[in-house]
Amino acid sequence: MDFLKRHFEKLILLLLLVLFALLLLYLVNIIQSTGEVKDSDLRIPTREADYQTIAETNPKFDFKALFADGSDWAAATPRNQANAGFFSDLVTVFKIVRCPHCGKLIPDFFLNKLPCPLCKKELLKPQKPEKSAETVLQGFDSDKDGIPDAVEERYGLKIDDAADGIYDLDKDGFSNVYEHLSGTDMSKPMSHPPYYELLVLEKLQRDELDIMLRGVVANAGNQKFWYGNFYSPSRRKDNSYYIGDTLKVGSREYVLRKIEPRKKARAIGEASSVNDDTSVVVLEDRSNGDLIKLTVNEKVFAPRSKAVLMDLRDGNKTYLVDVGAEVKLGAAISGYETYRITAIDPVKMVVSGVVIDGAVKPEKRKFQVGQAPIVPEKYRVVVAPPPSAEEGMPGGANDGLPGMPPMPGRTSRIPVR
Question: Do 279 and 338 sit in the same domain of this protein?
Answer without folding.
Answer: no
